[in-house]
Design brief:
370 residues; alpha+beta; eight-stranded antiparallel beta sheet; 51% helix; disordered C terminus
Length: 370
């Protein structure tokens, strides 16, 4: 590679790295506890447990489950209800002053007895703070888009780093760390070695993280296209004053998709439904397919299915990117691998900052990134 090209790539790598490194370091640090968010919730005593009952215990009517939430907050309306793929004994209800309220209450209800188990706390907790710093910097959509741009710069830094690695290592063995040289050279070698080893993981996590920051925009586009087409026959009709049975609506949805499980339900007026429908989102029962949803639109008055179709490709890509980003679809060993790679990335990013701060201490060749 010509020297002029090396210098150009070094310039691209240096500035793309410098701009994004601090934020990427923040994301890696905050992402580490999120990998083990279930375990940390249990450790801190924030997890809500369902009482042990025989496996054959029948489930309560969903109408009774909803009634339990409304009895606790009679002046609020239902927004969503959901279940975890591996925790079918609890329904989590989300209730707010309006269907689109940004302030809401979360309620855990026993799916078998329709009794309130508690109110999960998230905002203001350790994991809540980590989540907001990781997802939007407490800045909403603009925070997400900003972090998405930082993810794009990370991808540029990775690509330029790969281009620079070959000429930089032409006189060294792969992964060699020159321990007899000064501390800056040793950290430079360690930075390059860990960077190339974690290359694929960093690229996947950076790319999927960038895709995740587009979630709000993709959902809005989905509303204006797919959902608008699904609810077109209801345009101009008055909003229903009384909702039909959720138990009947769910029975119809599960009968239509017998090989799938219920992931969450969006109530009329929320982002994933319409003013006239329940949006019942079904998913598969395998670790990866449990993240792929199929919406079933149900008339909120008659509880009859009006439409059901596959999600568009861009939302499927978004949903697939989420488990790849957090590594939470393959059990404990995959979580451990993700955690180790995250720690390696923290070392890469931290050493990059160190090398920049110490850039004037030692002269390096044009092929060495600074």
């Amino acid at each position: 590679m010509k020297t002029i090209n090396v210098r150009r790539w070094a310039w691209v790598h240096k500035w793309s790295s410098l701009v994004c490194t601090v934020f990427m370091l923040l994301l890696c640090i905050t992402g580490l506890p999120l990998i083990y968010h279930h375990e940390i919730d249990h450790l801190l005593g924030n997890a809500i447990e369902a009482p042990v009952m025989p496996a054959a215990t029948p489930k309560a009517s969903l109408d009774d489950v909803i009634a339990a939430g409304k009895a606790l907050y009679p002046n609020k309306v239902m927004m969503y209800m959901s279940q975890e793929a591996d925790e079918r004994e609890i329904w989590y209800l989300t209730m707010g002053d309006t269907p689109t309220s940004e302030q809401f209450k979360s309620i855990a209800v026993d799916a078998r007895t329709a009794t309130v188990l508690g109110e999960p706390s998230f905002e203001g907790t350790f994991l809540g703070v980590m989540f907001h710093l990781h997802v939007d910097l407490y800045a909403g959509l603009w925070g997400k888009l900003f972090l998405g741009f930082m993810g794009l710069l990370l991808i540029v830094a990775i690509i330029s780093g790969v281009v620079l690695y070959a000429p930089f290592m032409r006189k060294l063995h792969f992964g060699e760390v020159r321990r007899t040289r000064g501390p800056r050279v040793k950290w430079l070698d360690l930075h390059n070695m860990l960077g190339i080893v974690t290359l694929t993981w960093l690229f996947v996590v950076g790319a999927t993280g960038m895709i995740n920051t587009w979630a709000d925009l993709l959902v809005k586009y989905y509303q204006y296209t797919e959902v608008a087409a699904m609810i077109a026959p209801y345009q101009g009709m008055p909003t229903p004053s009384k909702l039909g049975s959720m138990e009947t609506a769910m029975a119809n949805a599960t009968a239509a998709e017998p090989a799938m499980q219920v992931g969450f339900v969006a109530f009329p007026g929320t982002a994933f439904s319409s003013p006239h429908h329940y949006g019942i989102f079904m998913h598969g029962d395998q670790p990866l397919t449990s993240r792929l949803y199929k919406p079933v639109l149900v008339d909120a008055q008659t509880s009859e299915i009006t439409d059901r179709r596959e999600l568009p490709w861009y939302l499927t890509a978004l949903l697939v990117s989420q488990p790849l980003h957090f590594g939470d679809y393959g059990g404990g060993w995959l979580q451990f691998l993700w955690a180790m790679l995250d720690i390696a990335a923290i070392i890469v990013l931290g050493s990059g900052i160190y090398l920049w701060l110490k850039r004037g201490v030692q002269t390096i060749s044009p092929g060495e990134p600074s």
